[in-house]
Amino acid sequence: MSVRMAPPLPLIFLIMIHRVSSADWAVSYSHSHICALKDSSVIMSCTYTYPTEHQIVKAFWSILLIHGEEPPDLFEDSKYSQRLQYLGDKQQNCTIRLSHVTQKDEHEYFFRFTTNVADGKWIGKPGVSLTVKDDTDLQVESPERVTEGDSVRLTCKSSCTLTDRATFIWYRNSQPLTERRDTNNQLLLQSVRREDAGRYSCALHGHTYISPAVYLNVTYATKNVSVSISPSGEIVEGDSVTLICSSDSNPPAEISWFKEGTFVGSGRIYSISKISSDHSGEYKCKSINEHGEKYSDAVTLNIMYPPRNISVFINGSAEIVEGDSVTLICSSDSNPPALNFSWFKEAESSAVGSGQSFSALQSGRFYCEAHNQHGSQRSDAVTVIVKGHLVILYTSTGVEFVKLQLSSRCC
Predict the structure, then answer these.
(1) How many structural domains are present in the chain?
(2) Do residues 116 and 23 both lie within one domain?
(3) The whole model's pTM is what?
(4) pLDDT tens, residue by residue, 326-369
(5) Domain carrying residue 86
(6) Pair 244, 287: CB distance under 8 Å
(7) 195 phi/psi in degrees, rounded to 5
(8) Residue 20 in contact with residue 109, Cβ under 8 Å?
(9) Residues 6 or more apart in contact with residue 337 via CB below 8 angstroms
(10) Surface-to-core class of residue 248, CB atoms within 10 Å of its CB (0-12 exposed, 13-18 middle, 19+ buried)
(11) Is residue 3 part of a domain?
């Protein structure tokens, strides 16, 4: 807890009843002791009584009592005369105000009055003791941390009991809270928000001194959870990719990562080096702290890669008419899908066809090549043999047969 105090200000300190009396003679003080801050003002409240047949000749305050001598009048002392104000009526009320007090004013103060009757005089003893504290006595008391939505009170305190007439100014992060100038020493924050977190200090209106700041820590559940991908553009197989989970929470949240609902890692950053198509899918992060948890929206990793797993197969029914061509189909796995296909016959340098399908009119060894913007790949060569009533396709994985019908197409 930070502690500090404030300087000069016209601060008034009130006192409780303290009575010095004998029969009809009495002086009553609000309190026998006053504590004040340096450069403030203090009020010494006082009343007195005396026999009704007497009349007041002189009434004054003093700080010096010498046995057998009349005490000196403070109003006649140059150190006090400009700072002392009589607030009473010199009949029953003897209240005074002393302004701009310093440690040099720490004395016991007595009220003295005399009447028109011989020996008709009285002094209020014991009197009022004044203690003056330095400005640095001012401090802020605050809970170390609160939860968003709670109500919290911050207190500007001093070892002196400050009067209710004191006006307090509050600061957050060294900026005055102009809408909060309270006549008591507490700052009430109802339904505290995260924006209320910060360093709070206080001062007394009219003083230049500001107390040391105390940090108010506002905790809250995680929110604003999101995922960003780096790099942000197209992702190609073999790249390194980083997923970053951002969230707003206090205390800081623990982060978990999920792909298609399956846990895959933890920490604010999830990195994948040499990414492959197997990493494609939807990813989410979960942010959790002591106040709650929240998932981000899903982001999709769409991994681009060149054609692979190229193969050739025969398209058509189990029987074709004699004289028809045999259609070969080129199959590939790629992202994005291959749109360009080329067909080659072994021993020939140029392509013999294009497109995903190719019509083989004669026996031979053929292969296809698939292309997308990330690369190309060719299939293994297949052997096509037209023999009698059969078309035989020899591939690396086996043999396919297509039976030819003996009859030719009718008119």
Answers:
(1) 4
(2) yes
(3) 0.62
(4) 788 999 999 999 999 999 998 888 899 999 998 876 778 889 99
(5) 18-133
(6) no
(7) -65, -15
(8) no
(9) 372
(10) middle
(11) no
